[in-house]
């Protein structure tokens, strides 16, 4: 094992660094996947610091060695495809783009990875437009952070959580979750879990009760429930953000400001399985 690890180290250090780098920075960030090497673009003194980090594709030798290290378990299925960091006087952006690998369903894998690239490309283009305005007016600040984490990784499920946090005059956040059935290699949606649309009302009523209970017993908890509130919560969306935990529980997610004041942050509610068991298509994912 030590010999294999040393071999991997040598392979890494032997990676050649090209004399010339690709031209335009944005194109370098968002070009379609090729075989990647590890590059660092040093910033000039006058320019903003920019660092692009591209994760090296795992070689067969590396994959085999990693698979034999007990602490790592299975070979990693989500890696950082590219990372962009840029900072100027009034602006800052930090964007990480995930990439899923190892699926035999290449259509699903490609669609997800292209979606992740496109989302961050659009985010960066919007950021560049705001930077131009800030440079001219020299007032105001903008900070954008986009990344991902793995909420669930079991033999059956992989849940990739992507988030965007933006700060201007106020802060906002957007969360998205992709739940993948690793055995059947399909994307699991909220409607696909249930027999019909009755889950919308049942889950919504349970969430309302949880909100009331929390406000009654926990100091500082506030949810927008009554008609007196600016935008009271009525029911979840058909495709409401959700994820399934490693313990096979359903969690419904609301972005900041959607159902509560901003200081409450992003909101999650775990739905008791006995509340929805009769509505589920089966017990494969939730039980």
Automatic annotation (TrEMBL):
Domain of life from the UniProt record: Bacteria
Transmembrane segments: 38-58
Keyword Cell division carried by entry: no
Keyword GTP-binding attributed: no
Domain annotation DUF3298: ranges: 193-273
Keywords in alphabetical order: Membrane, Transmembrane, Transmembrane helix
InterPro entries on file: DUF3298, PdaC/RsiV-like_sf
Designated name of the protein: Anti-sigma-V factor RsiV
């Amino acid at each position: 094992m030590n010999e294999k690890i040393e071999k991997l180290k040598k392979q890494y250090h032997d990676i050649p660094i090209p004399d010339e780098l690709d031209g335009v920075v944005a194109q370098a960030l968002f070009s379609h996947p090729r075989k990647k090497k590890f590059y660092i673009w040093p910033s000039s003194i006058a320019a903003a610091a920019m660092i692009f980090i591209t994760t090296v594709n795992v070689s067969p030798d590396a994959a085999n060695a990693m698979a034999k290290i007990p602490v790592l378990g299975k070979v990693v299925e989500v890696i950082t495809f590219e990372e962009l960091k840029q900072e100027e006087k009034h602006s800052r952006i930090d964007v990480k783009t995930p990439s899923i690998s190892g699926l035999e369903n290449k259509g699903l894998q490609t669609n997800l990875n292209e979606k992740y690239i496109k989302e961050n490309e659009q985010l960066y283009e919007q950021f560049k437009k705001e930077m131009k305005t800030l440079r001219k007016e020299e007032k105001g600040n903008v900070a954008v952070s986009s990344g991902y984490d793995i909420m669930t990784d079991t033999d059956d499920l992989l849940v990739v959580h992507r988030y965007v946090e933006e700060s201007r005059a106020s802060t906002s956040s957007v969360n998205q979750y992709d739940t993948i059935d690793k055995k059947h290699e399909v994307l699991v949606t909220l409607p696909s879990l249930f027999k019909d649309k009755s889950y919308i009302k049942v889950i919504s009523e349970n969430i309302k009760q949880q909100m009331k209970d929390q406000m009654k017993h926990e100091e500082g908890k506030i949810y927008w429930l009554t008609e007196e509130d600016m935008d009271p919560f009525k029911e979840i969306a058909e495709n409401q953000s959700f994820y399934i935990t490693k313990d096979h529980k359903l969690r419904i997610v609301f972005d900041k400001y959607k159902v509560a004041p901003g200081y409450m942050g992003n909101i999650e509610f775990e739905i008791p399985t006995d509340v929805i068991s009769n509505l589920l298509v089966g017990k494969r994912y939730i039980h």
